[in-house]
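$ run holo --ligand "zinc ion" --emit tokens
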Amino acid sequence: MKLHPWLRAAAAQLSGAREAGRLPPALLVHEAPGTGARQLAVLFAQLRFCSGDRPPCGQCSHCRRVEQGEHPDFIIVEPDTEKSRLGQISVTQAREIGQQLALSSYEGRGTVLVIQPADAMNRNAANALLKTLEEPRPDAHLLLLTSMPSQLPATIRSRCQKLTVPAPDRAAVLEWLATERPQHRNDWPRVLDVLGVAPLAALEADVGRILAIREDIERVLEGAAQGRLDVIRVAHGWAGEDLPLRLAGLENCLTDRILTMRAGSRLPGAGRDINMASALRLLAELGELRRQLAEAALNRPLAVERQLWRLQGA
Ligand SMILES: [Zn+2]
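-- output --
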């Protein structure tokens, strides 16, 4: 497995834990969005199961099957998209996890069970999981991967060891992306403007679509700065399937502006200064709106309209 460079520090912590004989029974991996921390789950399972001299050897049958997703004791639980329209992990799935972990492992080397994203567990699922965490099987490991740990109940968080994967350095990510997909070398900075410093999300993105969204956001910010934003038209145009991405992009672009203003420099061609206090308030509200969108059906045009009016007033 070619480990993403920004995961090296976290990977070293896991290797250290294994050498000390202390791979945790429950681990909460808090990853910055789009950093591909699932590789850490693969590494964890390889460290646990490897039969080579220097785990993870990457060559033995355990290491290879874990990487290929074919090891019976390496289990990944994700939202059941067929049953849950909202992309939640259900209580039924959580109970199945409990049953899996109550049985002994297939190959006698323990079980590594991954929940990703862990914040997709609804309340009932989290409660069911809590029972499993309270009575762990000695050779079982539960890994919770999330970029929003605050969405998990405190009772679950407190039972897990934490491993943090911070957002990598922007320059390093741009370099990495330029190596992976050189044809978009000149586009990557603008892609990251929308997606944030989220290398895997950028690599998998439809670059043309992201660039179009970036232009839209720029137009909205300029329109708002000049007080000539057609709020209702934009709100309806934005309310489609790209909405979460657009809101995240707006958050990221607005954050960049705030940071630039703080640093005392101005972007070439930037509009008038925005009001710092209202911009910060707007940012918080955008974050809240995105969380609501993830949770429930919402009158989207209306919700977006409300935010755009605030932006206009900022
Ligand atoms: Zn191995």
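-- notes --
The longest helix spans residues 243-262.
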